[in-house]
Every structure is written in structure tokens, then in C-alpha cells.
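Dear support,

I submitted the protein below through the web form. The confirmation email said the job was done, but the results page showed an empty box. After a refresh the structure appeared. I'm attaching both so you can tell me whether what I see now is the final result or a partial one.
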Amino acid sequence: MKTLLASLADNKAALGRRYAEWAVSAPTLESAVAAAAMAQDELGHSRSTYPVLKGLGVDANEDGFGGDKRLALLDDELPDWNAFIAANLLVDGVLTTFVASCVDSTLTPMAQRAKKILQEEGSHRAHGEAWARRLCRGEQRDAFVARLLETWEHAGRWVGPDDDAELRAAVEAGEVSRDAAAQRELMRAWLTELLAAEGVDVTLPELTFDGWDAERRRWPA
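What the results page shows now:
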């Protein structure tokens, strides 16, 4: 659970920075405001998670800028708005699916934080879904779908292989309610249904784990 929580906090810190970079260049004023608000939320979620790690005896980074257990996709600025929305849907979505699995965690401090995080993540999901519908109806549809597939290669691996030892141990300890396969399937079903409603047939592929870095929970490609 320690590596999972460290990576959750680091990825939320990195996602907050990537969102913030679009706060002045989003395609609409409304989206720029949303990007700034989501950035603030993600950085706040990160900072509230590091004390949980500290309580587990981990020398955690509490300065709000995060460590190195983040997705390779978040190492650099998101290259375009399609990539931003893909991260909004899939990176934010995968992390939120994990947090939702911690609501009734036997790790009480994480259960308490999970409830608060989920309250704020509702607006992130609404933003991503609204923009997904808009992009699927316009000339950016194919480019957007390509970004989703690229992002899935990283975000879809975050929970690890189906038999991920750390997540399996967390499930057995009652710290997390869903294993890797169940969390990944929730994401796949939700996004497939969202796009199908717009007439876009997308299959998020099964993932292999060659080169998977379990300690940093990232795929290097």
C-alpha cells in the first residue's frame, strides 16, 4: 500500500502541474478556469495524501511538488488540448477509481481523505465527459481518439498487472476494495460507453507489462 499511495500522491502532484500549464492557454475562458480549479484540487489531494504516507513510516514529500513515482506521460507538458482531455478522462479517472476503492479502507486516514477527494473529483469527471462529447462531434475526433489510446497505454497500467502483489495484499488487508483487474474494467466500460453514445467505437486494448517498473508504477515507453 505504501508504494501505491506514494505513486497516487506523486501522480496527483504531476497532474496538477500539467493542468496548471493549460490554465492560460485552454481553448475557452471557461476551460481555462476549469483547468486552474482542477490543478488546485489535484495539488491539494497530493498534499493531503503525503501525511498518510508519513503515518505509515514513509519519509514522504510534503511540499506539494511530488516525487518521481509518476506516469511517464506526466513528465512533460501535455502537448495539446486533446492530450489534456485524455489525461482528464483517463489519468484522473484511473486515480479516482483507486481512491473510490479506498472509501471503506481499514486504513482510516486514507478512507477519510478518499471521501473528500471524491467530492471534488465529480467536477473533473463532468468536465472530461463534456469535452469528450464535444471532441467526438467535431473534426478533432480522430486525433482525440488517438490521444485516448496513447494515454491508456500509461494510465491503464497504473494499477499494475492483474496479479499485482501490492494491490492484492492491500485488498486482502481491507485497505482497497477492488483489485487491479476490477479497477481497469470499470475504466474500460465507462469510457467505451461514453464514446459509444457519440457513435465512436473504441476498444481499449489489453495491456502487457514488459518493462513495467513496479516500484515507480510506470511504463517507460
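Response: this is the final, complete result; the empty box was a page-load delay. The chain has seven helices and no strands.
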